[in-house]
Design goal:
3-stranded antiparallel β-sheet; 11 strands; D-Maltodextrin-Binding Protein, domain 2; 2 domains; elongated; 14 helices; 316 residues
């Protein structure tokens, strides 16, 4: 009986040591990142994860998958600590409510002015053999409708307005109606982001004309030379870093890095292009960024953290 009691006591003490918070040397603070469904945010999550796990002491990272609104709601409730790419201007009412409640803190831009617009291939509008050199704006499109033939309606062109269910479709529909394009064009709606990209890449590969909605940063716009119609831009997207209100107390060192974390659309297009061309995972792409973009990420951290991260990179 004494042996059983002693064994129980040892097990209980071990459990307390593993699960107790506060003072133990093995304590680790886990920072939860919202893994929204597109590649760029997942790469940013893994860049930050590598930095905090290797450059700081006592931190670990985990990722929760979800779409934009579930992640924003999780951030508000405290199930998510960090959203590296909010794109919250697409859901401004939800964002403003969360900010007003004090549940989330906006740490500013990850990247400035991520563009959303209607695009055409550069070879359509520029160069000695360009078939539409005067195509600059939406208003110019009717004169060139014959170049963008709808495969299901040979009498009209087609503008790919976006993806079914995405908030951006409303603006595409408004621009289509305001410019009276219904006489010369049909407005195409793709079933998914991949399907939309497929129409662009397919046309570009054959040297055909294409016009429609897309956004950056993306691997597609990192790879293809596209030009936006001058009057087709959406209001500048707010691609910010959001955190739960408790994170400054929970992980102050992480928050200090997040405040300084900033990239460009060109940086993002580049790493997404590299990811696509090499068929890398998001982890492999994050490592490529850290190895090849020292001039960017070393601005976010002090010399001690830089040294630790570089040492970890050398062994990965």
């Amino acid at each position: 009986m004494k042996k059983l009691l002693l064994l129980f006591t040892v097990i209980l003490m071990a459990s307390v040591a593993v699960f107790a918070g506060g003072e133990g040397e093995t304590d680790v603070t886990t920072v939860t990142f919202g893994d929204v469904s597109w590649d760029s945010v997942q790469v940013h999550n893994r860049i930050m994860a590598f930095i905090i796990e290797n450059g700081l002491e006592g931190y670990a990272a985990e990722f929760i998958p979800g779409d934009t609104l579930p992640i924003l709601n999780g951030l508000t409730q405290g199930d998510v600590d960090v959203d590296m790419e909010s794109w919250h201007s697409n859901f401004m009412d939800v964002y403003e409510k969360a900010i007003a409640s004090g549940a989330i803190i906006d740490l500013g831009q990850n990247m400035p002015d991520a563009p959303q617009a209607w695009w055409v291939p550069r070879y359509i509008v520029e160069g000695p053999d360009a078939p539409a050199p005067d195509l600059k704006t939406i208003k110019d499109l009717p004169r060139y409708a014959h170049l963008f033939t709808d495969p299901e309606d040979k009498n009209k062109g087609i503008i790919y307005g976006g993806v079914a269910g995405w908030s951006q479709m409303k603006r595409s529909e408004e621009m289509f109606a305001q410019n009276a394009l219904e006489d010369t064009f049909n407005l195409g709606v793709a079933g998914s982001g991949a399907a939309l990209a497929g129409t662009m890449v397919g046309a570009y590969t054959k040297g055909d004309a294409w016009v429609g909605y897309y956004w950056a940063p993306t691997a597609v716009l990192g790879k293809l030379d596209m030009v936006a119609l001058e009057d087709s831009y959406w209001p500048a997207a707010l691609v910010n870093k959001l955190i739960h209100k408790d994170l400054p107390e929970k992980a102050p060192e992480v928050v200090e890095i997040l405040k300084k974390y900033k990239t460009s659309v060109a940086d993002n297009n580049e790493f997404l292009r590299m990811m696509d061309e090499n068929e890398w995972t998001t982890e492999e792409t994050a490592l490529w960024f850290l190895r090849n973009k020292e001039d960017v990420w070393t601005r976010w951290v002090d010399a001690d953290i830089q040294a630790k991260v570089k040492s970890a990179l050398a062994s990965n």
